[in-house]
Specification:
Elements: E1 6-9, E2 17-21, H1 32-38, E3 43-48, H2 59-70, E4 75-79, H3 82-91, E5 97-101, H4 120-126, H5 131-138, H6 155-169, E6 183-189, H7 200-205, E7 213-216, H8 223-226, H9 228-250
Parallel strand pairs: 2-3, 2-4, 4-5, 5-6, 6-7
Antiparallel strand pairs: 1-3
Helix pairs in contact: 1-9, 2-3, 4-6
Length: about 250
């Protein structure tokens, strides 16, 4: 059982240091293909959240855990619930850029679906997600050996998801980022059934003006998992802009 945030550094070269934040019940290892695709231009870091009831806190507390473990960082690429964690990091001033992949910073962005976030815990615990649930999230078949990267499969993961989902409803949402000096980009799958494309405009309205948005055709809720090359192609110019800004400020 992980009592603390676990990090796996993958990038060896130069470029922004980028944390890859999974969703509520997903594993950070699902980002591995995207991390490999980003390695030539960035220093990706896979993130695994703490496990167990004592660690299954809300997004704000989890953001503080991530910040303590990761230290200095340049950017965050966040999936789903990871967007809430990333928003807390940005509001705290510890990250300069956030990429949202099928993500949200407030459950209100999801409309009626936001009211069901707390139900993700019972679904994880009693529904025991498997191949079908993973395929629905990915919008394509997921090999059995990789299902655990998309949905919670172990008893501990399901229990953690239960406690964390309940904690989300009891905490204050992160501040909106529209007035902060943070660079953002949004990538959304047009087949996302959990955080549908219709929610994207509400997210963008809460972000700095001019935040670019991209719609990936044929992608579901985990485009980093199913479309890593396409995501890397969209993220590359954005990360290069962060790197340039850092170099300019240091000059």
């Amino acid at each position: 059982m992980r009592a603390e945030v676990q990090l796996t550094e993958m990038g060896q070269g130069k470029g922004p240091r980028v944390l890859l934040l999974p969703g509520l019940g997903a594993r950070g290892s699902g980002f591995r293909a995207l991390a490999e695709a980003l390695s030539p231009v960035a220093r990706p870091v896979l993130v695994e959240y703490p496990e167990g009831a004592h660690a299954a806190l809300g997004a704000g507390a989890l953001a503080r855990q991530v910040s303590r473990a990761a230290g200095e960082m340049d950017a965050v690429v966040a999936s789903s619930f990871g967007g809430m964690v990333a928003a807390h990091l940005a509001a705290a001033g510890v990250v300069r850029g956030v990429a949202f992949l099928g993500a949200f910073t407030r459950t209100a962005h999801l409309g009626a679906r936001g009211l069901l976030i707390g139900m993700m815990g019972p679904i994880a615990l009693w529904g025991r997600p498997g191949v079908v649930a993973a395929g629905l999230a990915a919008w394509r078949p997921v090999p059995f050996a990789r299902v655990q990267e998309v949905v919670p499969t172990t008893a501990l993961e399901r229990s953690t998801t239960w406690h964390r989902a309940l904690a989300i409803r009891g905490e204050a949402p992160p501040p909106e980022l529209r007035r902060l000096e943070v660079s953002c980009v949004c990538i959304q799958g047009d087949r996302d059934v959990l955080v549908p494309p219709s929610t994207l405009e509400k997210l963008v309205e809460s972000l700095p003006p001019g935040t670019p948005r991209h719609l990936l055709k044929g992608a579901g809720h985990v485009p980093y998992f199913t479309h890593p090359e396409a995501c890397a192609e969209l993220l590359g110019p954005w990360l290069a802009g962060l790197s340039f800004a850092r170099s300019a400020s240091a000059a």
